Amino acid sequence: MSNPQQLRYSKEHEWLSDAEDGVSTVGITEHAANALGDVVFVQLPEVGDTVTAGESCGELESTKSVSDLYAPVTGEIVATNADVVDDPSLVNSAPFEGGWLFKVRVTDEPGDLLSADEYTAFAG
Asked: Which pTM was predicted?
């Protein structure tokens, strides 16, 4: 499992890109996608919604289970990935590329986000 070095990670297995004009992209890690199994349904927050770091903001349903999606930061949703809603398998096949979930205008970031190396050690 290879976690991109330029991303930061939450202990709930979400990844976060560096902010571009205050907006970061969020997805789930390859580790989380593998643990879930084949993702068959994705429920994302709506554009305009406010999300709070550490709180549930959506769901991922797989052939094995339903898991909450957690916001790694606090902010306003500015975009969601319609491709993932239409084809949830993108979460499994390209978790760091086409399988991204939403973009958020960050207003607050917790201090406990992990580097790629820290996340790799955490996730085992």
From this structure: 0.95
